[in-house]
Design brief:
single chain; about 600 residues; alpha+beta; 10 strands; about 60% helix
């Protein structure tokens, strides 16, 4: 049998023997990989969607807008179309700022006057219905989706009713709700949707004493020189604004400004919890893995082969989880990267960076799970490993005397915690991570949200905030689920490792209820500093991403979340601890149970 085949068979045998632990590891790593890969892929995803929309709609390289003010009409933009670098243009055409009502929703709208036959630059792509005709309006798809409007509906613009004849997308503006690009009179912009009317209808609309601007779409000989063209032709006249295609692509990413940190940081926290869970599972198998490694050494296996078998078992599971996580990220990216319907195209999926980072994470998890049993095996002799003799406890007579004064559950919990400091650190880290997620979720829930409706009304929901809330809720739920799994696994593993000492305690008079409480205390004690650290770190992490005017969550809420986490920890330990406490004492002490 070849060395590679031998390693594969031994690793497969280990996985089959511990199916439940393998499933937990794969699920935890899959969730962490999916979140991290999605967060790392967002920036390239929004740009890819913009470029696909730009290609399909002959998007302009430069958009110029000149606003009409109370003191002067909009400047003439026609000379820009005759610049040597310009090879094609659309306009100048009128832009009217108005309000629109549809299906009971009120919104600001920017109306573009358009030819009945679209030109070769900035040519909107119809996704349903027909292009503009006299008396009919075409809505931008992201705007129409927010309104719930479709072809055949009627909308009211500045008190005049129009039938919706079509739905279209364009790359000449930002995604909904940033259609304005420059506000009335050249001032600041408000959240606005986009609509098209014929140029005659748009001018008739403008005659109702509404703010007006003029727009010009330019195609350059070299699109990569759009910024240089703007710098060379920038007008000192107030109210004239320039937008390059690159700036519009970057504007799309603003909608996802908070999504990337949520998913990236959430992915790392999920990965951390996954590593914590793997460490707990690996610790529960440390004795068995060490004895297995000793058997391999006894039949002639080299230390390298022993390490390879242990590493391969965890690496295979981690890589399987990595592949599943990348597939989930690929499926989730379209919904995550495009919360509005303003762009078309297909998601490109996780890029090289996301794949490389998640693969490194998988290898690191496998290595961390392998190190301890491998080192323990290599350091000990084969005879000592196979004998698996118990370690003689250190003499701590003073501590023993002090602990004897405590109630039985607290005494048992302290002794379990003191004998397994590494496990206590892992439990503290798991609690801290859960509290960080809850802190972020509570803080986001109290932020002031500005609606897209007219005058700040709550008619139209703020897509960015809704999207952020949904993703943060999903990440928080996943973190809590992983923390629950880790807590249950840690309690069960601790109960298995402490079964002999707990049986001795029962033989000396401890009741099953006291044993159960002792195991719960062993999980609660490290959770206390973990919750405190989670509150502190959570506040620091949020300060890195929060806006200057961010509102802090009420302190009682945060402390309530920490206390609820600790209470949940105690509740989750009840079942596995109770099952462990009900084992017959005689069978445990006689060694009949594993």
């Amino acid at each position: 049998m070849g060395r590679v085949v031998l390693v594969a068979r031994l690793a497969w045998a280990g996985i089959r023997r511990h199916r439940t632990q393998a499933v937990i590891l794969v699920l935890a790593m899959t969730v962490a990989t999916a979140a991290a890969a999605t967060g790392l892929s967002l920036r390239g995803e929004t740009e890819a969607l913009y470029m696909q929309t730009r290609e399909a709609t002959a998007g302009p390289d430069v958009v110029v807008l000149a606003a009409e003010t109370d003191l002067a009409p909009a400047p003439d933009l026609s000379p820009l179309a005759r610049e040597p670098e310009v090879v094609a243009h659309n306009g100048p055409f009128p832009v009217v700022y108005a309000t629109l009502t549809a299906r009971g929703y009120d919104s600001r709208v920017v109306v573009h006057g358009a030819d009945e036959t679209p030109g070769e630059v900035g040519r909107p792509l119809l996704t349903s219905g027909d292009w503009v005709s006299p008396g009919g309006v075409v809505l931008e798809r992201g705007f129409a989706t927010a309104l719930g409007a479709g072809v055949g509906d009627r909308v009211t613009i500045a008190d005049r009713s129009y039938p919706v004849v079509g739905i279209a997308v364009t790359a000449a503006t930002g995604v909904y709700p940033w259609a304005a690009q420059v506000g009335p009179g050249g001032g600041p912009t408000d959240y606005s949707g986009l609509a098209w009317l014929t140029e005659a209808d748009a001018r008739e609309l403008a005659a109702r004493d509404l703010p007006v601007a003029t727009a010009l779409h330019l195609r350059l000989r070299d699109p990569d020189l759009a910024e240089e063209f703007i710098e060379a032709n920038a007008s000192p006249v107030p109210g004239v604004a320039y937008r390059s295609w690159r700036s519009m692509a970057e504007q799309d990413a603003v909608l996802l400004r908070n999504v990337r940190p949520i998913l990236t940081v959430g992915g790392w926290l999920l990965g951390f919890l996954a590593v914590t869970g793997v460490a707990v599972l690996a610790a529960g198998r440390i004795v068995e893995q060490t004895r297995r490694a000793g058997v391999l050494k006894a039949v002639g296996a080299t230390p390298g082969l022993v390490a390879a078998v242990l590493f391969t078992e965890f690496l295979a599971l981690a890589l399987l989880a990595n592949a599943l996580g990348l597939v989930i990220a690929r499926l989730a990216l379209p919904a995550v990267a495009a919360p509005t319907a303003s762009r078309i195209g297909e998601a490109a999926g996780p890029g090289f960076t996301a794949v490389a980072v998640t693969v490194v994470l998988s290898v690191a998890v496998a290595a961390l799970a392998t190190v301890r049993p491998a080192l323990r095996t290599l350091r000990a002799s084969t005879a000592a490993v196979l004998a698996d003799t118990a370690r003689r406890p250190q003499d701590r007579s003073r501590l023993t005397a002090l602990s004897a004064l405590l109630p039985a559950p607290l005494m048992l919990g302290l002794r379990i915690t003191a004998r397994r400091p590494g496990r206590a650190v892992l439990q503290a880290c798991s609690t801290a991570t859960t509290v960080i997620a809850l802190t972020a979720s509570l803080t986001l829930s109290v932020q002031t949200v500005r609606s897209y409706g007219v005058y700040g009304s709550s008619d139209l929901a703020n897509l960015r905030d809704v999207h952020d809330h949904r993703l943060l809720t999903v990440v928080t739920v996943l973190l809590v689920v992983l923390a629950v799994v880790n807590t249950v696994a840690s309690t069960w593993t601790t109960a298995l490792e402490a079964r002999v000492s707990m049986a001795v305690a029962r033989a000396l008079g401890a009741t099953p209820g006291q044993i159960t409480a002792g195991l719960a205390v062993a999980q609660l004690l490290p959770g206390l500093p973990g919750a405190a650290v989670g509150l502190f770190i959570g506040d620091g992490v949020l300060s890195l991403f929060a806006a200057r005017n961010a509102v802090e969550a009420p302190t009682p809420w945060l402390f309530g979340a920490a206390l609820a986490t600790l209470a949940a920890t105690v509740a989750l330990t009840a079942l596995p601890a109770r099952l462990a406490a009900r084992r017959p004492v005689a069978r445990v002490l006689s060694g009949e149970t594993p």
